[in-house]
Amino acid sequence: MSLHYLVRCQKVMVTFGWRVKNGKTGIVFVEPETKVNSEYYCQHVLGGGLLPDIHARCQRYSWTLQQDGAPSHTARNTLTYLRGENVTFIEPDM
């Protein structure tokens, strides 16, 4: 099962969510003018919303996280966090 990463940029807010084979995750909202660096992304977007939701929806199925090349996605801290959470993900081309 692969996950497709969705980001919607709007005038006032950025949202994160994933589409999975058996539905969609909840949406994580980021307030306007929030700097989404690696620390924020790991703590609030991944750990605070999306990863628990993905684990609950996918349960026994294997899945692979696919992200774009945003700096908060490719940061060393983010990659270390994902490995620590045992998330299978597509490595960024560095």
Question: What would the keywords be for this entry?
Answer:
single chain, 94 residues, alpha+beta, 4-stranded antiparallel sheet, 3 helices, 4 strands, disordered N terminus
Structure description:
36% of the residues lie in helices and 19% in strands. With 94 residues, the protein is an alpha+beta fold. It has one domain. Helix 1 runs parallel beside helix 3 (76-84). It starts with a strand and ends in a 10-residue tail after the last helix. Residues 1-13 have low confidence and may be disordered.
Tally the beta strands: 4
Q: Helical amount among residues, as a percent range?
A: 25-40%
Please tell me what the overall shape is: globular
- H and E string: EEEEHHH
Category by helix and strand content: alpha+beta
Give a short account of the largest sheet: 4 strands, antiparallel
Query: Which stretches are poorly predicted, pLDDT < 50 over at least 5 residues?
Result: 1-13
Rg over C-alpha atoms, rounded to the nearest angstrom = 13 Å
Number of distinct helices: 3
Secondary structure blueprint with pairings:
Elements: E1 4-9, E2 14-20, E3 23-24, E4 28-30, H1 38-58, H2 71-74, H3 76-84
Helix pairs in contact: 1-3
Describe the structure concisely.
By secondary structure, the chain is an alpha+beta fold.
